[in-house]
Automatic annotation (TrEMBL):
The keyword Transport applies. It is a multi-pass membrane protein. This is Integral membrane protein. Pfam families: TMEM175. Belongs to the TMEM175 family. Coiled coil: none annotated. The chain crosses the membrane at residues 12-31, 43-62, 78-99, 105-125, 156-180. It catalyses: K(+)(in) = K(+)(out). Keywords: Ion channel, Ion transport, Membrane, Potassium, Potassium channel, Potassium transport, Transmembrane, Transmembrane helix, Transport. InterPro entries: TMEM175-like. It is found in: Membrane.
Length: 293
């Protein structure tokens, strides 16, 4: 494991690199006189290309910041993956500049390949960080896959479809890339809340969750995510927290036939930690986990 101080420096380094990448891209926008109509058209076309890449890089930064905020230390191998991630992202300005002049099929396909590699590397980073907080690695792998697997697969399919479309309509295909980061931006918080909620559960609860059907897992994660959001919004208010739990228990019983007592056992550690916090003791969400290098 690397120290908290080194993790902070890694955070700062990555933030700086991503800021530089975005700065380089915006400096590549054509700065020509607008006396000619063609120059105006070229400028706004270049802005459109820049917008796609900006959303791409900004979304990675947001996911990175959200992920790293959940841990104080990270395994050393994450540093290598982070360097690979930054290397791939550093290629984005060159591809953006290339397409600002003329969007061609080959450049859009290469852009998609870089996009795909970035997603793969970032998911490896995410999975490693999530797994380090679990005692049972195999169980956590299944939980992680159940939450993120579907969205990851959808992103891969979208990239593949756009790359195929780029063969025939490269300009339209490139613009469609913007849908991936926008979609991810709106789903990441829900996914993170759902994962946090499942992590709060006792081992028996997690095992019962994994035995649910896919549809039941989706419903249960939605309820857990709503409960986690309401619990956070309570900000120590006992009445609001109690109402959030009661709503969660009622919904779980009516939609999934989960007994409130069973649900209480699943989230016993979470409730105990929250109650301790409300009584004045420090509180950090999540059950104690072993940390492995």
């Amino acid at each position: 494991m690397i120290s908290k101080e080194l993790k902070t420096r890694l955070d700062t380094f990555i933030d700086a690199i991503l800021a530089i990448i975005i700065t380089i891209m915006v400096l590549e926008l054509p700065a020509q006189s607008w006396e000619h109509h063609a120059n105006i058209t070229n400028f706004f076309l270049a802005v459109g290309v820049y917008a796609v890449s900006f959303c791409f890089v900004a979304n990675i930064w947001y996911q990175q910041a959200t992920l790293f905020s959940t841990v104080d230390q990270i395994p050393r191998r994450i540093v290598l993956w982070e360097f690979i991630l930054v290397f791939l992202l550093s290629l984005v300005p060159a591809l953006t500049r290339l397409m600002s002049g003329d969007v061609e099929s080959i450049s859009v396909i290469i852009y998609g390949a870089i996009y795909f590699l970035v997603i793969v590397v970032f998911r490896l980073i995410s999975r490693t960080i999530v797994h380090q907080q679990a005692n049972d690695k195999d169980e956590m792998r299944k939980i992680y896959t159940s939450i993120y697997g579907e969205h990851n697969l959808e992103n891969v399919i979208m990239i593949a479809a756009i790359m195929i479309l780029a063969i025939f309509v490269p300009k339209a295909a490139y613009i469609l890339y913007i849908a991936i980061p926008i979609r991810s931006f709106f789903t990441i918080d829900n996914d993170a809340r759902e994962l946090t909620g499942i992590q709060q559960m006792e081992t028996t609860g997690q095992q019962d969750y994994l035995r649910m059907s896919h549809d039941q897992q989706v419903k249960f994660r939605r309820l857990v995510g709503e409960f986690i959001r309401e619990s956070r919004n309570a900000r120590g208010n006992t009445e609001i927290s109690r109402t959030a739990w009661e709503n969660f228990a009622k919904a779980a019983e009516s939609e999934l036939n989960i007994n409130p007592t069973t649900l209480g056992h699943w989230f016993a550690a979470f409730q105990q930690a929250k109650n301790t916090h409300q009584n004045g003791a420090p509180y950090r969400q999540g059950r104690p986990r072993k940390v492995h290098d």
